[in-house]
Specification:
Its main location: cytoplasm. It is found in: Cytoplasm. Keywords: 4Fe-4S, Cytoplasm, Iron, Iron-sulfur, Metal-binding, Oxidoreductase, Porphyrin biosynthesis, S-adenosyl-L-methionine. The protein is an alpha/beta fold and 440 residues long. The chain has two domains: 298 residues, tm_1862 like domain (pyruvate-formate lyase- activating enzyme, Alpha-Beta Horseshoe); 85 residues, Arc Repressor Mutant, subunit A (Orthogonal Bundle), CATH 1.10.10. It contains 15 helices and 19 strands. The strands form five sheets. Strands 9-10-8-7-6-5-4-1-13 form a nine-stranded mixed sheet, with helices on both faces. A three-stranded antiparallel sheet has the order 14-15-16, with helices on one face. The protein is globular.
């Protein structure tokens, strides 16, 4: 049985966003926004789905395009969505957390980026405080030093660069040839400009990947000294994601090879002093994530681990997710449906779901294990006003094999994740998900 694996993309929401059924999304999101506490902070996530090149590992709703001017109609509708939402929110405190994802946000021209930032500020009010967390995902092939200078001038202070793999054979197999010097030049410029946090993304399980080759990639990335390094797992689902049909399944590493790749990466990151936060996220000891973990205040948002307290997050753009109170909402997955809703002056949420009492219990159990590495059933019972041990009896039974395998320890009402268990954390979290696929 393969316990030692990970995938940080799972359980950013519970239930998983992929299982959100279509329904009256606008009504669900409208109700959730209306029920928010006045003055409560709100984080913003903006999806910019455009990219010039189709990476074969892609598992996102992306819009292929060569000309940034083709994004203008989308940006116009994005502003329309902002207007509709801001009318429901009323007065907000200055937004401290902003994230631009995609796609490749740097696909936009500098003028388009500036205009979008100004519109967000006009509709919601963006913070200029030093403690703000304004992050953006960057494809190094789409950006240069002038891009970074413009982003820094706008107010962004955290970058996530998509490296994926530095082995040229693998890069060709996934249609993402990206010379190391390209990434290094951006890393050096980001440091010079004073971006307070830099994350480099790597993917495990790509075609033609080997433990030795990926180990060399990890060593080269460590040499760039980023504050954070993320290991993501490639999931081969060609029936769902068209670009993946270009990948030859016979070139994919098997489970044993993937485990060897992970173990080699783990050893190198440990030797370099990086702290394993969990779910493939690593951070230097001086980074805010490592500090939050040590102080017991780590949380999870829709983009992964954060040192900010959990709170409401609003997604803007096609396929964007929102989490407001106990409600999850997802915008239309297709660009056509997204545009049609906004052209009709309707919120583009195509699905909305409000968690019931049992689901909130499961959500909080997942959050406790993922962020604090332990679950106190007595505290959970008190917080939810019920017997958590009885309500989670099925989950606790599913966790028994992990206890025997040494990934989890149970001491009375308290369960603790072991260091080895961090590498099987996805499976531990899945025990609290009745609809999860059993470990194979």
């Amino acid at each position: 049985m393969q316990y030692h694996d990970h995938d940080g993309s799972h359980y950013l929401t519970y239930p998983d966003a992929a299982r959100l059924a279509t329904g009256d999304g606008p009504a669900a999101l409208t109700r959730a926004l209306a029920e928010r506490s006045p003055g409560a902070p709100l984080a913003l996530h903006v999806r910019l789905p455009f990219c010039r090149q189709a990476c074969r590992f892609c598992a996102s709703q992306r819009v292929p395009s060569r000309d940034s001017r083709q994004a203008d109609p989308y940006l116009t509708r994005l502003d329309r969505e902002m207007v509709l939402v801001s009318r429901l929110l009323g007065r907000l405190p200055a937004v401290q957390r902003l994230h631009w994802g995609g796609g490749a946000p740097a696909f936009l021209s500098l003028d388009q980026m500036g205009d979008l930032f100004d519109r967000l500020d006009a509709r919601f009010g963006l913070s200029g405080a030093r403690g703000r967390d304004f992050s953006i995902e960057i494809d190094p092939r789409e950006a240069d030093v002038f891009t970074l200078r413009h982003l820094q001038a706008l107010g962004f202070n955290r970058l996530s660069l998509g490296v994926q793999e530095l082995d040229l054979r693998v890069q060709k197999a996934i249609n993402r040839v990206q010379p190391r010097v390209l990434t290094e030049s951006l890393v050096d410029e980001a440091e010079r400009l004073g971006f307070h946090s830099l994350n480099l993304d790597l993917i495990v399980g790509l075609p033609l990947q080997t433990p030795r080759g990926f180990g060399e990639t990890v060593e080269q990335v460590i040499a760039m000294t980023p504050a954070r390094i993320t290991l993501r797992r490639y999931a081969h689902l060609p029936e769902r994601y068209r670009p993946q049909r270009e990948i030859d399944a016979e070139d994919l590493p098997d489970a044993a090879t993937r485990l060897a790749i992970l173990e080699a990466a783990r050893e190198r990151l440990d030797d370099a002093g990086y702290v394993h936060i969990g779910l493939g996220q690593f951070a230097r000891p001086d980074d805010s994530l490592a500090q939050a973990l040590g102080e017991g205040r780590l949380a999870r948002g829709l983009q992964g681990y954060t040192h900010y307290p959990p709170g409401d997050q609003l997604g803007l753009g096609v396929a964007a997710l929102s989490r407001v109170g106990d409600t999850l909402a997802r915008n239309a997955l297709s660009l056509a449906d997204y545009e049609a809703a906004l052209d009709a002056s309707q919120l583009p949420a195509s699905a909305g779901y409000r968690l019931d009492a049992v689901e909130r219990l499961h959500r909080d159990a997942i959050e406790a294990l993922a962020c604090r590495r332990e679950l106190d059933l007595a505290a959970l019972s008190q917080a939810h006003g019920l017997d958590a041990g009885a309500a989670l009896a099925g989950a606790l039974e599913r966790l028994a094999p992990f206890c025997r395998a040494g990934l989890l320890e149970r001491h009375g009402q308290c369960l603790r994740v072991t260091p080895d268990g961090l590498w099987g954390l996805t499976h531990l979290l899945a025990a609290f998900d009745p609809q999860a696929t059993p470990v194979a």
